[in-house]
Amino acid sequence: MTHTVHHRPSSSELRLRARREAAEFLRGLPVPADPAASLRTCAEAMSQASTPAEVHALTELAAGGEEAGLIALRNLLRAAGARCREHGEIQLATRYERTSDLLDIADRALFQLGVDLLTTQYDTAPDTAAPCLTPVGHDEGAST
User: Is residue 20 part of a domain?
Assistant: First the structure.
């Protein structure tokens, strides 16, 4: 009696197959060839940042807000979860959703980290970015 050995593809083989199969689909989408390019630019610029404000600005540019990388990735994972759920793949949907929840946690942690970083700079330092335009002793909006 002969036994048939079933070859289970490796994760690399599975990913390569998926890239090949999806190549035409992806060519039809308006996606950049290198979606992580702006993140790498921010990471490379980080070594040139000399103030907490510059560090915060780069981090915020790369990760903060609805249009930035972290939240965009979270939204992609949520969409993948919804797609899996629509196709009856409930366990996979749940895993995508839980992973997207981790990115929510990371977003909140990065927000607080940014506040903490800026607090170290601005708790004791005067604001030198712009001169004060409000005369001392006048309430804002009060007529003279």
Answer: no
Residue 95 within any structural domain of the chain: yes
Residue 5 belongs to a domain:
no
| Domain housing 116 | 34-122
The alpha carbon of residue 7 and the mean position of all alpha carbons in its chain are separated, in whole angstroms, by 37
Residue 57 contacts residue 129 (beta carbons within 8 Å):
no
The tally of domains found in the chain comes to 1
Written as one string, the DSSP assignment of 75-121 is HHHHHHHHHHHHTT-HHHHHHHHHHHHHHHHHHHHHHHHHHHHHHHH
Kindly state whether residue 4 falls inside one of the protein's structural domains.
no
Q: CA distances (Å), 6 to each of 9, 12, 15, 47, 83, in order?
A: 9, 17, 19, 50, 29
pLDDT tens sequence across 108-144:
999 999 999 999 888 775 666 665 555 544 444 444 3
Question: What is the Cα–Cα distance from 121 to 31, expressed in whole angstroms?
Answer: 38
Q: Compute the distance between CA of residue 108 and CA of residue 63 in angstroms, rounded to an integer.
A: 11
* Other beta carbons within 10 Å of 133: 5
